[in-house]
Write a sequence for this structure.
DNA sequence: ATACCTACTGGAAGCGTTTCCATTTCATGA
DNA sequence: TCATGAAATGGAAACGCTTCCAGTAGGTAT
């Protein structure tokens, strides 16, 4: 089988190449009869248009790049699922760039891949791109959407991490807690991904506003995983003497780690220790975790939809036209405060 | 900036297009001087070759497709990380097809995407492709590697699930357990992904070989998540009367769900209930989970390396040559029995 | 019947590379 | 000095589509 080309289809259908192309891609100015003829011939030959030839000729790729710092953690895999589903349904390919913890990869991804005119658009998750980098992308007319990270000049979907962290802390304060600890992200995670610092700032703001001291030894850090936070929380909770009565963890995974550590010490949650998280991890339900639910998957889906919209709008020859979405929108994604039973009034 | 093309580079360097192309792609038969000239000119102009034009002309895509049924579960995200890292380092793109639980997507992915000549190779994770589907891919000279699923005719990386499940069960039997329960995967997961059934068969084989009865009510199913297994295990452990003394879960995530459920009932692990899992989930350490460690990430990396190798071997114009890797290898990936402290001699 | 407009159609020019092939250059040994 | 082959070079033909543009048919109004 010599992989039928459009020429073969045209011959078989008794039409010209041009007409077949129009017919198969659903363009106007094709008679119903021709269209049907073309489709039938294409089916019979099992014709599938060559992606590269079509992209080269039309300038459209039907391919969106997704840049993530990791794929293992709940937040990222949720976003990927959301993006992936939406894109697949729209007939778009998803090219995944998992830049991981290696910064040199990040550079090569931006240069060697993203700029290679092979992507129609880019979704960057929790990645802080420099203005130069953003401009580079915009210069070649590639719309960008950032999720969970501030992208100057590009459209963004995010939640107000500072405010929500503050809300979470205030929930604990409101219950009467004064001895509140915080589990934040590790320093290196703060590099491309300022989130831990922002949530921590929210925590500190709430504490200060309430006139509560922040004990440095009660601010510990972990790597955003359950097991990492478990280890950190064990240190935090080790000595009965200087033990907090509540913990605000910067993610649900870390909150769960704290709950597990607490259980190991025979501490009951919430009677002996209140724990509040942030994210909306599915596993939170098992632990009755009080948290602020953000629909990461939904955020991914929304980002994809936004991109598809601007792509459809700017249709034909994106290289040429004016930059799509001159207006960079900054949407705040809705969240939900989910009170379950990992937080309560302190027993003392 | 009009996005410099190779023509511009050639003009600037005072060379022909052909020589520039050879120089930049590191081909032979280019003088050192010309090569340097070309590189300098390319740098100055910020030239990046057009992916589509280059693929169209050369027939090589530098793009590997990865088909997964999900991205959220530990096993899959681990594999994706492994594949992703290896591919990125080799300068390949990764196109992710998350077919999810919707079978219609699977079909469209195979037809509309994979066959569109845009992929050099395909890695299918835990997906059972029909022989027709495999032949379709092989017919257009696209090497396939399957991970964790049997792909007749294609290369495969897998672990011997049946034997390992048997080993896990034998570990419990060897400790003296007779009342052994099994948490398997749900029926619908068994469709494209026979794994739950295979592990279950291993369990049954071990039990039968030991002359132990399998109590149907002690074989429960869950969706491979912690929370799902937690719910199932609660049912399993609810009545003190007919309670097993050991549980073999078909995945670490489900084993952890069982441990959490046991704790809720005040059962101590391993004194009151032994739990063994399978996979090597990072979280297993926190729970002291005895398991069989399979390096999912390593499997992904290996699959990518295998593919890259055959691609490099078959170099130039893969469309034309003989099918790469006529020899479909079926490798068994090494595993490690990890005895921690979630299993012990039954206390009765 | 003629003019005119519209809906279709097909030829052919790109899209931006890679690579074949013929040609030129250059070093080497006789 | 000249033949000889290897190394380097450039022209031009693909690669397989999309789309512009000119042209053809077929219908309507005059």
């Amino acid at each position: 089988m010599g992989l039928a080309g459009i020429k073969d289809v045209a011959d078989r259908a008794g039409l010209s190449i041009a007409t077949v192309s129009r017919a198969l891609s659903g363009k106007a100015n094709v008679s119903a009869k021709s269209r049907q003829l073309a489709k039938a011939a294409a089916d019979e030959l099992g014709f599938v248009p060559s992606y590269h030839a079509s992209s080269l000729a039309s300038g459209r790729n039907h391919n969106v790049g997704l840049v993530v710092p990791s794929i293992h953690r709940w937040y990222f895999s949720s976003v990927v699922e959301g993006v992936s589903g939406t894109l697949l349904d729209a007939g778009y390919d998803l090219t995944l760039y998992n830049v991981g913890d290696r910064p040199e990869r990040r550079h090569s991804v931006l240069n060697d891949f993203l700029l290679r005119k092979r992507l129609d658009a880019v979704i960057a998750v929790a990645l802080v791109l420099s203005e130069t980098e953003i401009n580079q992308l915009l210069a070649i007319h590639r719309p960008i959407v950032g999720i969970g990270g501030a992208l100057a000049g590009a459209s963004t979907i995010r939640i107000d991490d500072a405010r929500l962290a503050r809300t979470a802390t205030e929930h604990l304060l409101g219950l009467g807690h004064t001895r509140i600890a915080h589990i934040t992200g590790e320093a290196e995670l703060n590099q491309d991904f300022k989130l831990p610092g922002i949530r921590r700032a929210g925590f500190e703001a709430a504490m200060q506003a309430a006139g509560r001291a922040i004990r440095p030894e009660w601010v510990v850090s972990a790597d955003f995983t359950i097991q990492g936070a478990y280890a950190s929380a064990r240190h935090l909770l080790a000595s009965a003497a200087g033990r907090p009565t509540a913990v605000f963890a910067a993610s649900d995974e870390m909150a769960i780690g704290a709950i597990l550590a607490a259980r190991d010490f025979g501490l009951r949650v919430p009677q002996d220790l209140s724990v509040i998280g942030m994210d909306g991890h599915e596993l939170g339900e098992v632990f009755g975790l009080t948290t602020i639910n953000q629909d990461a998957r939904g955020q991914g889906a929304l980002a994809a939809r936004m991109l598809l919209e601007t792509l459809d709008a700017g249709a034909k020859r994106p290289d040429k036209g004016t930059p799509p979405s001159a207006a960079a929108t900054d949407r705040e994604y809705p969240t939900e405060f989910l009170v379950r039973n990992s937080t309560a009034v302190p027993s003392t």
